[in-house]
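The records we work with from here on pair a chain with its fold. Here is one such record, which you should read through line by line:
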Amino acid sequence: MSETAGPDALCSVRGSARLAVTGLGLAGAAWAARAVWHIRLAVAGEPASGPPDQGAGRHRPLTSLEDSYHLVSAAGSILTLVCAALFIGWLGRMRDNARVLSGRPPRHAGIWVYVSWIVPVANLWIPRGIVADIHKRSAPDRKLPVVVNVWWALWLVGMVTGVGLMYDGDTDDIIARAYQGVSTLLVADLAMVGAAVAAILMVRSLTDVQLVHIEAQLRTPGGDPLKETVRAFDRD
């Protein structure tokens, strides 16, 4: 993501937006599946032998339900990583275009597109700030879509209640949590599913807004479109 790109460096983002939406849909489905398994574990109840992690480095054999949850959890983790890669790819291209459209460098350095999600404390606001900055530089005449704040609020709820800032245990620990009290896990699951849906709407909204402004900028002073560049965007 070069900071010195010129007008000819505008990126076509339709393809990356479609990939990001697909990734978000798969991640949302994965979190919905986790919610189903959390409910199944809670309904089944903890075996008489206790939780999978017996302490002092001892683990009892898993039940068939616990074993299937490990598979669901592993698949969900893979899909979430794929989603993250596709979403960040879209975010990077949108950021590059926003810089070209505004003629000014972004508020945050390029490295933050990647590390802001994992740096403690910074991950509470910088990722949203990057998205908001992209929209502001792409379409300064438009308000930030409400869906951006909905997405970020749901993401934070999911992080705090179940999977990130306040809890970093392994899969067996999460199984034990489902047995002991599944409510916070379900809140996290539903928040993450909601965040995925909101993110899909956000990706589509911001992409459409940016494309409108790109097409406006890809016109000569006389109003004629730069045909080859426009055709490149239309083909994507």
Remarks:
- Residues 64-102 form the longest helix (39 residues).
